[in-house]
Design goal:
Order of helices and strands: EHEEEHEHEEE
Distance between the termini: 28 Å
Strand content: 25-35%
Strand order of the largest sheet: 1-4-3-2
Shape: globular
Helix content: 10-25%
Number of helices: 3
Length: 140
């Protein structure tokens, strides 16, 4: 059964934000401001911070804080470790400029801007924590 064929379901659930666990929240917020031009929306020093990304929020929580909330082990992060099995996608009309700015600010280049068969221009970098960040044009 396809999703379209499924009985309509109305949910009050909405995607509000993604929280990534990092060693240093303030350093991560500073990196995202320098590399991508995204500014902080809310900061709880040493514990939590949100970036103003539009209708959803990109948030970072300190690993030390998170490990007090639940017992599930966390994968180690860092640019010297394999990337986590996820990515952050940032949409921009100028992928080349965004890629160059990010790399100049310390992001690790993964894939230079390339036109994809479905019409988007896409590049990849890794942030200061090792997370993959996709820089892409809007979908047509």
């Amino acid at each position: 059964m396809t999703l379209a064929a499924a009985k309509p379901y109305i949910s009050s659930m909405q995607f509000g934000y993604a929280i990534l666990y990092v060693e240093q929240v303030e350093a991560t917020l500073s990196f995202y401001e320098k590399a991508f031009g995204i500014t902080g929306k809310m900061v709880m020093p040493g514990e939590y911070g949100e970036l103003d990304t539009g209708s959803t929020k990109l948030a970072f929580a300190a690993r030390a804080l998170v490990t007090t909330l639940f017992a599930t082990p966390l994968q180690d992060g860092g640019v010297d470790k394999p990337a986590a099995p996820m990515e952050i996608a940032l949409v921009t009309p100028d992928v080349e400029k965004a890629f160059d700015k990010a790399v100049s600010a310390g992001a690790v280049a993964v894939a230079k801007p390339a036109q994809k068969p479905w019409g988007q221009l896409i590049a990849y970098v890794r942030d200061n924590n090792g997370f993959l960040v996709e820089l892409c044009t809007p979908m047509a």
